[in-house]
Amino acid sequence: MVDIVFSQLIDPFRIGLIFFLVVTAMRTRQTMGLATPLAMGVVFVAILIPLTTAAGSGIERIPAIGFGILSNAIILGMILGGWTIWEKSRR
Known about the structure:
The chain is mainly alpha-helical. It is 85% helix and 0% strand. The protein has one domain. Helix 1 crosses helix 5.
């Protein structure tokens, strides 16, 4: 389990998708809010990656999606923390 989560945490494709999810959510937060688009995006990315790349992996899809949600939430927290620090340092 730990090796699966670790491999998902260092996946550059996953990190890029979550980063640009945050960028898009920040740009549209006045009309859409922030929590709902981020939560839906985390689940979407967690489902998308195992469905498109799981052909050669030895893990089943349902656990991969569950671990993906966990990994995406951790990545999202780190990116949002960095974004908050960036915004506070600019002011």
